[in-house]
Amino acid sequence: MNASQAGKQKIQIVAKTKSEPKQGRKEAPNSFPSNVRSLIATGMLDGVPVKYVALSREELRGIIKGSGYLCGCQTCNYSKALNAYEFERHAGCKTKHPNNHIYFENGKTIYQIVQELRSTSETLLFDAIQTVTGSPINQKAFRIWKESFQAATRELQRIYGKEELNI
Ligand SMILES: [Zn+2]
Question: What residue stretches are annotated with the Tify domain (predicted)?
Fold first, then answer.
């Protein structure tokens, strides 16, 4: 092989390596809720206590309910479910990412928890959900979600083929 051929081969290898993450490695299909809103909408976290924490302000307590937060401010007194932005406003704050300021009992934010669960392997996922907030979760909603998650996983398995998923 002469120098020019060797150079060409090198370029080809570089090009191949570069495109690898896009084409070579398929992302493992996963039907886990991909954001905070869809996680809360499963109802699994209904009844789990949270608090909005901001520097220089008193923290505001809340409880996850339906697709929002039962607000613990004096006016609402847990009688009203608010979305994250409204809940944040009742805490006297205004940011672009309220979910980064809403904490569970164990000191993790709701945003962190979604990220954590999304990177948990499917074999560990169901156990991880039970303990991830540091508070008991809603078992009835969990069972319903688990069944639909498993059905969705089987469907993905059917589409993508068994060897891709390894469950
Ligand atoms: Zn309120």
Answer: 62-117
Distance CA 132, CA 114 (A): 10
Question: How many helices and strands (H and E) does the chain possess?
Answer: 7, 5
**Ligand 1 geometric centre to CA of 166 (Å):** 46
Cα separation of 25 and 107, whole Å?
Answer: 35
CA of 64 relative to ligand 1 center, distance in Å: 13
Measure the CA–CA gap between 91 and 103, rounded to whole angstroms: 13
Task: Quote the ligand 1 centre to 45 CA distance (angstroms).
Answer: 19
pTM metric for this prediction: 0.75
Secondary structure letter of residue 58 according to DSSP: -
For residue 137, is pLDDT > 80?
Answer: yes
Rounded Cα distance between 132 and 39, Å, is 13
